[in-house]
Amino acid sequence: MKKNKMIERAIHGVFLILGLLTVGCVLLITVYLVISGIPAITEIGIFDFLFGKKWASTAAEPSYGILPFILTSVYGTAGAILIGVPIGFFTAVYLSKIANPKIKAFMEGAVSLLAGIPSVVYGLVGMLVLVPSVREIFDIPDGASLFSAIIVLAIMILPSIIKVSMTALEAVPKEYEDASLALGATPVETYFRVSVPAAKSGIAAAVVLGVGRAIGEAMAVMMVSGNVPNMPSLFQSVRFLTTAVASEMSYSSGLQQQALFSIALVLFLFIMLINATLNFFLKREKD
Amino acid sequence: MKKIISILTSALVMCSMFAGCSSEKESVSTDGSTSMEKVIGVLGETFENDTGITVTYNPTGSGSGIKAVAAGTCDIGLSSRELKDEEKEQGLTATVLAYDGIAIIVNNDNPVSDLDIETIAKIYTGEIENWSEIGGNDSEIVLIGREAGSGTRDGFESITGTEDSCKYRQELTSTGDVITTVAGNPAAIGYASVASVKDSVKIVTVGGIAPTEETIRDGSYVVQRPFVLVTKSDKKLSESAQKFFDYITSEKAREAISVAGVVAAN
User: Average pLDDT, stretch A119-142?
Assistant: First the structure.
């Protein structure tokens, strides 16, 4: 009896340590980012850093303004949501309510596959297919632009939007829909007037998850966006917060490197904000 | 629990012993040009395999590397430019290790096949914006470059005198990306290390001269720069540093140098 208790306790201890490992990683990263991100911000000045319009980190007179990166990340994510959410939402409604089982199984498989494609593959296909097509369709000198990045991001966030929305829609009690149908509503009316409102927190969570994925993506957008620190414009070459860190990290030194950590800190704060929003929606769904 | 602690402590002791050993090993310290990272890395590795002497490399930039060797804080300074006269007066000797040739590349469909260095500078600073101004098709020139801090970008901009004034349309993070992008856009121009350029793009001649090993070594191809080893003229190198110096300037190092994508000087 006593021995059993001991083993039981030991196992609890092991689980606790494994759990703390994750928490420890998060804490470590947070503390490290804050410690290494603050010095450059204080040296450059928080206003010049966040609202400076010019980034020239290796110039003879360097300037470190990240407003172009912040705006590019915001516009890029907004664009991806604008395109990705309607497609993802209607796909989710179709798959969870309308589609016959065979089509549903097939399409769900395709969506899962889309989620599993590594981002570098999205980038490569974007670079070799999308960028030249954008150049020819819109008759601009070069296709690597904010627009191309938005298209790639929109496709990349589809799986998370579709899957999370589907889960929410499928969790709507059948009685709600039956009641609506019994009162004479058509099926489509029922889906959009009853099921969707009942699942709205879950759908909102899906959108927020999509935002998180889009704002944190680096590899794919780096390959299609051109990476020049311009103020964002749809058909211009742009640089995101993520790609700003990724593209200069390998050769950076001194203040330039510290400034890259500061960019990472800003990005981290964005992600925290998004996570807080996500938790808010998920909690509301539970209540 | 005690057992675990004792295992951990003994592991720690072992680790510190190894660490102690390695720090006593002979080593050669180099300091300087970030562009020379690859070539010094390859040479240092082959040298260490042969002799067991480690080579350390501190990427600080040509100017700092020259200062470091003058101050005696490293064995060999690395510079990706010739020494200035005032630097030579400090009693420093420059030995050219290799030449880094940078190819100017355009799309295979581009009729332009020769540019001179002034025209290249004008193109990159935005003074010439259309290929038709220099005998090409009527299309806007798309400037492809490398990211800030890249050695190739630093080399290209310093040779053409366009530091901090290039109006890039794309800044890419690898030579391969630059070549792929130029291959995919008929209006693009880019630059890349000569050794990595394949048939997928066209190398333009600069002032009528194509980049080959000979033209890069004799200096007639102008978009190139020397990789220089900087040493003190009056002070002898340490034994291991002298060994490393002799090895990398000998013919035996040729292959390793060309692996790094540059042309050996010796």
Answer: 92
pLDDT tens-digit readout, A47-58 = 999 999 999 888
Residue range B149-162, pLDDT digits in tens: 777 888 899 889 98
Determine how many CB atoms are found less than 10 A away from the CB of residue A27.
11
For A253-271, write each residue's pLDDT tens digit: 778 889 999 999 999 999 9
Query: Any idea of the CA torsion for A51, A56, A62, A67, to the nearest 10 degrees?
Result: 10
| Residue B218 belongs to domain with CATH number | 3.40.190.10
Q: Do B187 and A127 touch (CB under 8 A)?
A: no
Maximum pairwise Cα distance, chain B: 81
- If DSSP codes are grouped into helix, strand and coil, which group holds residue B263? strand
Dihedral (Cα; A232, A234, A238, A240), 10-degree rounding: 80
CA pair distance A136, A143, nearest whole angstrom: 8
- CB of B187 within 8 Å of any CB in chain A? yes
Q: Are A210 and A160 in contact (CB under 8 A)?
A: yes
Is residue A24 included in any domain, yes or no? no
C-alpha A74: how far from chain center: 11
Q: Is residue B184 within 8 Å of residue A128, measured between CB atoms?
A: yes
Nearest CA in chain B to A136: B185
Distance CA A17, CA A129 (A): 48
Say what the pLDDT of residue B165 is.
87
Domain range enclosing B156: 101-224
Write out pLDDT tens, residues A72-127. 999 999 999 999 999 999 999 999 999 999 999 999 999 999 999 999 999 999 99
Q: Which residues of B207-242 are buried (b: 16+ CB within 10 A; e: fewer)?
A: eeeebeeebbbeeebbbbbbbbbbbbeeeebeebbe
Q: Which amino acid is at A100?
A: N
Other C-beta atoms closer than 10 Å to the C-beta of A5 total 9
Number of structural domains in chain B = 2
Is A256 in Cβ contact with B187 (below 8 Å)?
no
Q: Which domain holds residue A88?
A: 67-286
From A128, A223, A247, residue closest to B147, measured CB to CB = A247
The neighbouring-strand residues paired with B59 are B32
Is residue A31 situated within a structural domain? no
For A39, the token pair is 């010095």
